[in-house]
């Protein structure tokens, strides 16, 4: 596991993954997403921080710790965001490892609670200790808002 701060050469790939998985249908362009990933990789602070899981030195997935991830909820911070595993690497527990890396990093920073929202992986997150706080509509789709208390 590495971060894009340690391996800035991975930022273009994580930007493309993030755009294809989460933003392609929205107004964000691929170029904007890749620029944001590159800027985040070079940033001096603890957030955003993107973790990349390597399998035989090949990137197979990512997850990020970000200050904000859901425009209608600026009161909630920080967030687990952009959890993605490449299709050919799915089904091997990589998502759980990525989430654990973000949780450990957040805990080391003294963060007590993390947030996420998901449309399709609520059961996975519930199995690893996240709890559903509410279900809400956003941009015409239903999502689960979930939290993880790290001090427990």
UniProtKB/TrEMBL annotation:
The keyword Transferase applies. Residues 1-151 form the N-acetyltransferase domain. GO terms for molecular function: acyltransferase activity, transferring groups other than amino-acyl groups. Keywords: Acyltransferase, Transferase. Pfam families: Acetyltransf_1 (PF00583). This is N-acetyltransferase domain-containing protein. The keyword Acyltransferase applies. PANTHER family: AMINOALKYLPHOSPHONATE N-ACETYLTRANSFERASE-RELATED, AMINOALKYLPHOSPHONATE N-ACETYLTRANSFERASE-RELATED-RELATED.
């Amino acid at each position: 596991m590495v971060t894009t701060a340690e391996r800035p050469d991975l930022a273009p790939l994580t930007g493309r993954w993030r755009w294809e998985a989460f933003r392609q249908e929205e107004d964000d362009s691929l170029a904007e997403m890749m620029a944001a990933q590159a800027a985040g990789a070079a940033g001096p602070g603890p957030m955003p921080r993107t973790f990349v899981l390597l399998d035989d030195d090949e990137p197979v997935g990512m997850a990020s710790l970000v200050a904000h991830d859901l425009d209608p909820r600026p009161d909630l911070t920080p967030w687990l965001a952009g959890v993605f595993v490449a299709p050919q690497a799915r089904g091997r527990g990589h998502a759980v490892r990525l989430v654990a890396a973000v949780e450990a990093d957040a805990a080391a920073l003294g963060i007590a609670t993390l947030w996420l929202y998901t449309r399709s992986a609520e059961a996975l997150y519930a199995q690893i200790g996240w709890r559903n706080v509410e279900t809400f509509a956003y941009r015409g789709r239903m999502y689960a808002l979930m939290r993880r208390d790290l001090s427990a």
